[in-house]
Amino acid sequence: MGFDQYHEPANELSPETRTRARMFASLTEEAEAIGWYDQRMSLEPDAEARAIMADAQTEEFKHFCMDLEFLLRRIPIWREIAQGVLFQSGDITELGNAAEEAADGDGGDGPPADDSANSSLGISGLKGAGL
Amino acid sequence: MNHLLRGHAPITDEAWRQIDEEAKERLVPALGGRKLIDFDGPHGWHHSATDLGRTDREAKAPTKGVFLTTRRVLPLVELKTPFSLSREELADLDRGAVDADFATLDEAAHQTAVAENLAIFHGIAASGVEGICASSTHQSIPLGDNNFERYPEHIAKAIEMLLTAGIEGPYGVALSPDSYTGVVETNEGGYPLLQHMRKILDGGPLVWAPGLEGAVVASLRGGDFLFESGQDLSVGYESHDADQVNFYIEESFSFRVATPEAAVALSIAP
Question: Predicted ipTM?
């Protein structure tokens, strides 16, 4: 059995990174299965067989969405960009560019220009502390 | 993920939590400068300069009838202190070890705090950062033979100088490690010197400031000493091999003194 989801030595990766790698592999497999059913149904002349395939494909939609949601919850900036693109109306490329720009913090004043503040030790001001 | 690359470190979330906690525990007591100044931010790693609101007029016009002025800014400085932890030790953390060896992290945290205090009190000439001591317009008060029993007298004198200059309190005092130890350990006829100094300061803080030479009395009324944080103190991941993981403590900031007369230095130097 191979472990193709790893592109770096698995024993050097944290457990969290290995879990994400498995979910990325799973997401890819679900997307492939949706595509395969799509092709099969387009050629299958038997209506009963097509109905079974459609039912199976619906399962893959659900699996894909669950995998995606898992990854979005663990990668906040991906989630932020997805919120600007998914279930929106309008030009998809424009939505994508706008969501990316907003996530990068290039959209103007206000919040920090990156998420380094969220990774800090949170010490900030200490004025007045002491003996 | 940001430039700290924390997600690439081959360590668990629990190990990160303990590293951050240890770093914070070591940094906070030693960040004496921050306890006397105004903190603004953090504005993020991309933040590169502080607006000074001033310009320099170029003597030579670029073309006839056109004036050229250049905005003046104070660039942020970056402090980065590397340290390494054993992978074996990190693995033991995940097994529940409570006596992890964080000596290298502790030393890095202390040195980072010293560097920040040095910038706040003594400045960084190469980066245009003027420290509180160097920029003070008051004559420094000599501590002479550093007799700790005379510290209340010196501090009372400094406060009088500030009041005379129209600088209101509350006031705080930063002490070098030697002075701090001396103040805490000294009694005046059985009465703790520390209590005497607290009375003079009327509730203002007395802080330990490794990196500071001598002592400083400063007003805490606000608007006088301005620390602008880009990225606040953080732990980042550098690299790893089979035996150890290499980290660093990092921050970016600028510091400026808006009111040079709002502090008085107490100097050990003759």
Answer: 0.86
